[in-house]
């Protein structure tokens, strides 16, 4: 099975190549079937690999000799493979969601959209599986390039092209910073593999008798920059709301569901494999960096999320808030923190993708994603409303959703964490419930049209189905329901938590990873005892869900969502490329300060 | 954010980044040093694999998976550009007027076109022996076709550039790389393993799969650049908005 | 000054970033992004240089000749391709921005805020 790991990345590539070569002539159902088949085959391979024992695959058979290799390794560790499986399954869901209804451009570009989605899948799976720093950069860029194109897909409209441009500038800049960092590491160690670089750093430190010097810290900061841009951590986050608000809905499901989480995964992976040893950066510095940025993202994301009327932008800011929580969980740098975060990511992917799916249905029926304009318009589709509300409660961490379980497991790690997690979950979940109550129940007032302060309204958007649909299309509703069911399953199947906990233990083992990759040691851990739902965890989940309901109930009647003192913060989200680039370099400075302190 | 505030944030960030980077440089090995462990291994492996151009050995053999990703980035970019620069609703295509070209330019262009084409093909074919390969040669081949646009006019370029065929070649080049990689698996080794006979050092057929992967990339890059330029040229010369904001009709002499 | 090549790479990165952030024209900003990226080529090639060595191509060299690091050259090639593609895509987006917004000045793009 190990030998087949590259196929997880390569099968979607082949599918995309076939679609491009034949797409002009293939009728749409055939193109969609080919894409679905390729995505599903890749998902099947990833799931099959997860069922077997973990292993590594040296591409080109360049296996290491004496701990050194000239090749690239793909690592089938449970967390990376799990993320690849999640990506592939979500891609299948997205292709099903856009099946038949999603409006494709005419004039012989029939297979272009599914082909781009397959390339996106390949980029993310490659990034999740690779054990080589430069290879990770290549797949990072592949994700980026496809992401810009997919975001700007609806070129007939003004906003998507602006959002895609911002995405392109900030992400590319982050990628180049990462590559500078990789260059520094190569200069020091003469290696590119994560395990090899980590080992060389440790050996050099052992020989010199000291830990990190300026070069290692700088490399850490620069490599982290690109990953934090991808993870949309404050102050690298500005691109995310602009992008997710304007991308086609199926693309938003992928961007928010897995791509942003790839940034957090990358940060954790690079830290544990390269920098966690004696030759890396001190754990205190890494923890402080991720913790400060994580908490700041969670708070800024929640505050901004609450004030949006553009529903997709609201969901985008909730993604900023939740990735903030993920970074906080990762920052603990413990197996339990990673295990909880992994479950949280799984649950969040289902819930957030389902919410975007429901919002897409609103867009396709009413040509708007504006909370005020949509007031009461969803009253005739109670089932979609039910799904939307369930998604909101899942975001709030209601047990037994996977989000609630992940949140509970991370919260138990430190006494002050519950306050942050409950607050952020309640505000983001509450914002979604508020929208749900207004749109699907017609509760409260429509809301004033002329709210003070800078804001993006969501009216007069083109439906993505070509023309408005009368009733919610069956595939779209089915996909949303299945995604929520999956999110629920994450929190109700104990075996999954057991597997994730064992995976997290292997993931955080710096020396174990190097041994598994370079010396053929065991790559996994046997499953041991694990934590599951506790009364406290479930209680805190119920508390944040109750708070979310209370917040929503209190705010439906109010005419304004604006939090008065936050106007300066809202003004910083200006949509200006120059501003965002300035914040990105300022972020490099901030991260260096936090890492060094 | 005001321009002033942006400059403050920017300059603070730049200063901090400069300090961080400069501090890092003091820890780098001196420029031109002799310690290159990966490089030395790569050179040894290239010679052992009968690939005279060590860079090609790294690109198409030792780190061939990177190159697959790289080729895919280009492939994705072309697909993305095709989508982004499509003719939208309300836009129409107007064939540009033929433009006059000075006779000397025409003669020169038509003279160097076949030479450029030949050089491009040579660079692709000799990627395992001399500097170059599929990426570099592919760009040269694609450029040579565009000499027709410079030396004759857009119509002439369009005649040698059937887009459907080049899109087919674009997909085929990508698929060929993917399938050549799978051949390694089928042969019982790893994905992208170099399982072919390595041939005689410093001949065209040396390097095992390297020349084949090189050719696949050459096909992909050639067609990718042609398709890419076609869409940019289409935007510049052909596509007009509904309000008839006429583009300048191409290259006016 | 054996650090000069490395410092040059850093300088190119910084001026590129400064250019993007202060640009009044998106085409210019895309150019600045390409400048930023070229810092990575300079760093990679500087890292791989070896005094007195030549290009790692053995078709007309003895096989024991000292050569510079071929790995960074391969990486730089990949990097160049990535840079060219990103530039092309962003320029395509700028073309559409000019059509939809009627401007390529980032100061005048105001559809997304708050």
Would you kindly provide a brief summary of this structure?
Chain C: It is a multi-pass membrane protein. The complex is a heterotrimer of chains A (597), B (253) and C (114). With 597 residues, chain A is mostly helical.
Task: Provide the residue-averaged pLDDT of chain B.
Answer: 91
C-alpha Rg of chain B (nearest Å): 23 Å
Which protein chains are joined by the largest interface, and how many residues does each one contribute?
Answer: A-B, 89 and 74 residues
Largest sheet of chain C: none
How many strands in all of chain B? 2
Low-confidence regions of chain C? none
Q: Kindly state the percentage of residues in helix of chain C.
A: 55-70%
Strand content of chain B: under 5%
The overall pLDDT of chain C, averaged over residues, is 94
**Overall SS class of chain B:** mainly alpha
The helical percent of chain B reads 55-70%
Q: Give the CA-CA distance, first to last residue of chain B.
A: 45 Å
- Please identify the structural class of chain C as seen in this structure: mainly alpha
Order of helices and strands of chain B: HHHHEHHHHHE
Organism (chain C): Streptomyces telluris
Pfam families (chain C): Oxidored_q2 (PF00420)
Transmembrane segments (chain C): 71-95
Keywords (chain C): Cell membrane, Membrane, Transmembrane, Transmembrane helix
